[in-house]
Amino acid sequence: MAFRLARLGAGPCWRGARGGGAGLGAGSRRLCRPPGAAGAERSRGLGLGAAAAGGGPGRRGAGLAAALAGLAGLAAAAWGHVARADMVPRSASPPGRPGEKEREEEDELARRCRGFMAPPVTDLRELRGRPGDMKTQMELLILETQAQVCRALAQVDGGAGFSVDRWERKEGGGGISCVLQDGHVFEKAGVSISVVHGHLSEEAVKQMRNRGKNLKTKDGKLSFSAMGVSSVIHPKNPHAPTIHFNYRYFEVEEADGNKHWWFGGGTDLTPTYLNQEDAVHFHRTLKEACDRHGPDLYPKFKKWCDDYFYIVHRGERRGIGGIFFDDLDSPSKEEVFQFVQSCAQAVVPAYIPLVKKHRDDSFTPQEKLWQQLRRGRYVEFNLLYDRGTKFGLFTPGSRIESILMSLPLTARWEYMHSPSANSKEAEILEVLRHPRDWVH
């Protein structure tokens, strides 16, 4: 299957992509409202969306591959029609005098990059030099994803813009963190990407071995490259759900030069109150994405999601699930990449209609209080159980602000709080304790 990355319209966030990685400097920030984010629509209808292949059950896989969220910070999403970047190879030409094909390639990549929230982490000359490499394809995919998600969120919010923070990791690589806070609709929305490389620590290598990857190190070190896009979105209205999604790619090279690769990620929904129609829409959209790549994928990854986002000490899930997978390395790199694209494409159509539907709902102080208590559960899972967060907090060179970007601005813990029987609060707790099949 041959795909081409969809082009974004020229964005206002940066200029001058042609010459390479110039643009926003390390750690630089700016406030940016993405293209098309002038105002918020007031549509309340539900719409369905897009597409998703790979395998492997259990909670084991959320270790080092999920740790990309830690190395990166957090930040995956969707758009109309996205896929693999087909880039024209350079033609031979005298130094300083690019040939026609090279100029066309440069223009195409530069146009695409102008729609991103910031310049690529990798220098454009390097990206052009390896057009067919999976690291190039994945970096372009996550940059497109970030820009499209920020655009969709800004349009729905209609108020605040995104703060764009481009950072570097001294051990290798860097990332772009985009955060919207105190908007009209969203209390906090973060969409981040990272592209990092270097050597894994002994602890990281140990984690990989615990997951069955017996890799050969040199002096206790292992070369790696990792990249991904991740997002957590917390709306203000307690009837609008929180969403998290993350899609990532990982490569390691053993001491003998042997390379291993895998993909991971997922999308899950955390509502404060149960809305049956919303749950069916969300899961059905993800199922349609998975079904394009195999009928066994959605049930496998839905169960994996329910098992992973489990708050053991509370005996309940963080939310109503979605899909989750890790360590996907078959049937082929290209096929798994296409699956990841499909998963990303499904996020916006799965989520944005729900926010539009509920952003203007009326709510009581008691309902806002329940939202704050459920946010407390979200924090508990992320800090106590999420392996990506924990790995990132203990990884040298990781960026703490980006790692903790997933946490809400506000949350609450009350001693021995228990909802009344047969209440709406008790209804969502029942679902969190006993996951349901939403699509059959």
From TrEMBL:
Xref: PROSITE patterns: COPROGEN_OXIDASE (PS01021)
Enzyme class: oxidoreductase
Oligomeric form and interacting partners: Homodimer.
UniProt name for this protein: coproporphyrinogen oxidase
Key words, A-Z: Oxidoreductase, Porphyrin biosynthesis
Record pathway: Porphyrin-containing compound metabolism; protoporphyrin-IX biosynthesis; protoporphyrinogen-IX from coproporphyrinogen-III (O2 route): step 1/1
Protein EC: 1.3.3.3
Cross-referenced Gene3D superfamilies: Coproporphyrinogen III oxidase, aerobic
Family matches, as PANTHER family: COPROPORPHYRINOGEN III OXIDASE, MITOCHONDRIAL (PTHR10755), OXYGEN-DEPENDENT COPROPORPHYRINOGEN-III OXIDASE, MITOCHONDRIAL (PTHR10755:SF0)
Organism of derivation: Pipistrellus nathusii
Family: Belongs to the aerobic coproporphyrinogen-III oxidase family.
Pfam (any one): Coprogen_oxidas
